[in-house]
Design goal:
This protein is an alpha+beta fold. Helix content is 39%, strand content 22%.
């Protein structure tokens, strides 16, 4: 790329669903949704076969089944997905240390300094895709560009198993025909207004008079026109500080206050605390999220005197928050509950689990689950 930055955006193809199809031959070629196994759940991920019916992630399962009655729903296996993600990011690290992880299955890679070793950007990306497929059985789509914005757009252009390079010389030729909806930062509310102005493509947005656009885009006009032209100077950020961790669930039936809801709360607290420990973090605040049957959503939070990652501490705090919230509405029914933590700080090697019996139980639990899977051990508080 003639001395310019070379950025890769790597996006695994239908990551969760592809892992399920890889591991179960009977699912291959069939429309698969991960998650949404209850009547009230939402789709966490959809295979490409399901996407042809319009099934998408975050879609309510009822809508997904209306669009695709043959949809096969499978429960998520998050521990496995995280393990595969670690494997994929290890492959990334063979090509560059400049990695900005966006999620378990998506990352930016700055490979500018790696081209002297691996050759052209296309050669490097092909080797990367080959390594991923050979070692995980999965496919990835890769976009190559001089910046993050264009690399992310490029990775979507030839999915699945895609590879698209957009050089500086080809920026306008590739971007101009694309619909404005592909542009990050341009919300769906702005698109009808642009359409009324006759602006439907990035090329039209890039070349339009700014005065015409301001009535629709306001203060974002200049920034969005620069993005439509493929301009982006953001660096790849190697270390992104995690702000919060949470787990939540929508129930098949609305639950009243009582033992059943407390069991669900304990299970979510256990999941959140386990994720904290896996990332070697401590939390300073516990956050409870509750959605009532009428869809009214509330949050409550409580600071911890001492930052903790112990399941017992997080569970007890969440339970106290729920009790206080429900005291004024004892007949309430709950549609969704979530347990999150914020105020995250790094845990020291010696202080992660602490000396308490609860911390020792957590350490043993994590060790067993890591070896035998998350279903190998269940806490008594989560059982009937």
């Amino acid at each position: 790329m003639n001395g310019e930055r070379c950025i890769l955006h790597v996006d695994m193809d239908a990551f969760y669903a592809s892992i399920e199809q890889r591991d179960d031959p009977e699912l291959r070629g069939r429309p698969v949704a991960v998650g949404g196994t209850g009547q009230r759940g939402v789709v966490a991920a959809a295979s490409y076969e399901a996407r042809r019916y319009g099934v998408r992630s975050a879609m309510p399962v009822g809508e997904a089944l209306r669009r695709c009655p043959e949809l096969v729903r499978v429960p998520p296996r998050m521990a496995l997905y995280r393990q595969v993600s670690v494997q994929i990011f290890e492959i990334f690290s063979r090509y560059t240390p400049e990695i900005e992880g966006l999620s378990l299955d998506e990352a930016f890679l700055d490979v500018t300094a790696s081209l002297a070793l691996f050759g052209s950007p296309l050669m490097l990306a092909k080797r990367l895709k080959t390594d991923i497929h050979r070692e995980t059985g999965l496919t990835a789509s890769v976009g190559i560009a001089p910046n993050k914005l264009v690399a992310k757009i490029a990775s979507d252009l030839e999915k699945p198993d895609g590879l698209c390079e957009v050089t500086r010389q080809r920026l306008h030729a590739v971007l101009d025909p694309l619909p404005v909806a592909v542009l990050p930062g341009l919300g769906p509310r702005s698109q009808p207004g642009l359409a009324r102005l006759g602006i439907r493509t990035l090329g039209q947005l890039r070349s339009a008079a700014a005065d015409r656009l301001r009535a629709v885009l306001g203060r974002q006009t200049d920034a969005l026109q620069r993005r439509a032209a493929g301009e982006d100077d953001r660096p790849v950020v190697v270390h992104r500080e995690e702000k919060s961790i949470s787990s939540e669930e929508t129930f098949d039936e609305d639950l009243p206050l009582g033992p059943a809801l407390e069991r669900q709360l304990a299970r979510l607290a256990d999941r959140t605390a386990s994720r904290l420990r896996s990332k070697r973090l401590l939390a300073g605040t516990v956050v409870l999220k509750i959605r009532r049957a009428d869809f009214t959503t509330s949050t409550r939070q409580q600071g911890l005197g001492v930052p903790s990652c112990e399941t017992a501490v997080i569970s007890a705090t969440a339970r106290a928050l729920l009790k206080a919230w429900g005291a004024a509405q004892p007949a309430v029914r709950v549609r969704l509950v979530g347990v999150g933590v914020t105020g995250l700080v790094a845990a020291s090697q010696l202080g992660l689990f602490g000396e308490s019996s609860s911390g020792q139980v957590d350490a043993a639990t994590d060790s067993i689950r890591e070896r035998f899977g998350t279903a190998a051990l269940t806490r008594a508080r989560t059982l009937r």
